[in-house]
Design goal:
The chain is mainly beta.
């Protein structure tokens, strides 16, 4: 009788152990890492990529409290472009930036969010970001991801209708993200009183007055000189502002 009880007891324990392995394996499989596309309560998470969709490490992600000034939480994207931060109760909005040194100047660049809506810290959210070289910022109409080019004529020299001048920007070397740019013709935008959205890079710039086809001379208005061929090779000023303007370029032009 005792022997039978022992055998029955042992068989029962083995049965429970086997069931535990099966159930435990099932729970482990279904309870793994959370789906990165779905929000996790109490956390802000997401992925940061460059313009080609590749992971972008080292970006700074900000969760800003929408009710209190300068109350924010920071995270940094890892080698795979992923980030995750805990968000307390409250209303939060996510943004991201990346810093780059390019041709000896430091640039601070905003990244584009896939969703600009505020979210509850308790509910959590997923916000992905991408580095864009140009385009209007969805959360700040009239502001752009590209650099701003201020255009003026030399005092006493024409033409005065800058909107009728075609400025050709030819990249000299790769753009700030390492990509290869192409020559682009820009015009002065009277709505913004500048050329508002040029990808950050080093450019050889030439200008033509369209009504007559005359070639104009251009230079860096800050400290440049006119050259024999009338062109100017210029960089944007970076995050250290010049004339209270970040990521800007200052062109001055004149008739020969």
């Amino acid at each position: 009788m005792n022997t039978l009880f022992k055998k029955t007891k042992n068989n029962t324990l083995l049965a429970f152990a086997f069931a535990g392995l099966v159930l435990g394996g099932g729970c482990s499989k279904s309870g793994g890492d959370p789906d990165p596309a779905k929000p996790t309560a109490g956390y802000l998470s997401g992925r940061v990529t460059d313009a080609q969709g590749k992971p972008l490490p080292g970006a700074t992600i900000f969760a800003d409290n929408t009710m209190f000034y300068n109350d924010n939480i920071l995270a940094t994207s890892d080698a795979n472009g992923n980030y995750r931060m805990q968000t307390p109760n409250g209303s939060w909005q996510a943004s991201a930036q990346i810093r780059r040194t390019y041709n000896g100047k430091s640039y601070k660049l905003d990244l584009e969010p896939d969703n600009i809506d505020a979210f509850s810290g308790n509910d959590g959210a997923v916000r992905n970001f991408q580095w864009k070289l140009s385009g209007e910022k969805p959360d700040n109409p009239g502001a752009f991801y590209g650099g701003s080019v201020d255009v003026t004529n030399e005092i006493g020299k024409g033409p005065y209708d800058a909107e009728n001048i075609a400025f050709t920007f030819t990249p000299v070397g790769p753009l700030i993200d390492g990509s290869t740019g192409k020559p682009v013709v820009y015009q002065y935008d009277t709505d913004y009183n500048r050329i508002p959205d040029v990808p950050i890079g080093r450019y050889k710039i030439t200008a033509v007055y369209k009504p007559t086809g005359a070639k104009l001379q251009v230079r860096n208005r800050v400290d440049g000189t006119y050259t024999a061929d009338g062109s100017a090779t210029m960089d944007f000023y970076g995050e250290i502002p010049h004339w209270s303007c970040n990521n800007c370029m200052f062109i001055e032009y004149r008739e020969p």
